[in-house]
Design goal:
Dihydrodipicolinate Reductase, domain 2, 5-stranded mixed β-sheet, 4-stranded mixed β-sheet
Length: 299
Amino acid sequence: MPGSESERSLVEAMSRFISFLGKRLPDDVLASLKRLGEKEDTPLAKTVYDSMFRNLEMAEKLDRPCCQDTGVIQFFVRAGPDFPLFGRMEKIFNEAVRMATHSAPLRHNAVETFDEKNTGDNTGTRIPWIHWDIVPELKGAEIDVYMAGGGCTLPGAAKVLMPAAGYEGVVEFVFDVITSYGINACPPLLVGVGVSTAVETAAILSKKAILRPIGTRNPNPRAAEMEILMEKGLNDLGIGPQGFTGAASVMGVHIESSARHPSTLAVGVSVGCWAHRRGTIRLGEDLSLKVLTHRGAVI
């Protein structure tokens, strides 16, 4: 374990937070599931939603993850350049994941590529995955922690379109992805779309999109309108909860974008399942800690 008292304290706090996320969904996801469940009018769809909430109730009661696939742990960090533990965060995250693997418990999901060997503690080569954003005006850090499941987010897709495909091509790609594997991703889904200049940037932006609170809109009014229209269109597919048909297929559609080269139009899609296990924690300059996504949570 990292050496200083502040590092050890943060390792333990992050480990508890990771464990917590596997058992309790963020407030916006819970509210969305409740809202969508109330809109369903068929017995099967209502039963599926009832089973989801029963599952969450038992996860909290038994202190066990609400889904057996606790995913690959991913961290998205926004930190100021003077954040005191900036250079130690990778080691802190790795140790926190190891601790949470045993205490939560988390399923062992880190397999070394080519060696085909499970590491047994959810860490390995570039796992947990850490994405860094340096925010000059930020004194502390904000950390999104995400459990990327093998049936939903990890089978995401990205493609570079010819510019002539236009934004209609972006929509077509999103619908192709959702209709191809959306049922396997345990709907209702949170759909993240990245529109950018290359496959890697579109893919990262699509992942950042599903880390936004449900219902938030892209600040660009054209992108926001596209979010609304795609959400309506995907819901009209009638996939329903767990793919058993129903009024709603998605909890929302979020788009993130960047400027792009005039010769490319890249699109990425990442999908969160109904058990969208993500959380955001804020660390102050003094390393004080606040959970932003779960009301009343004490870590």
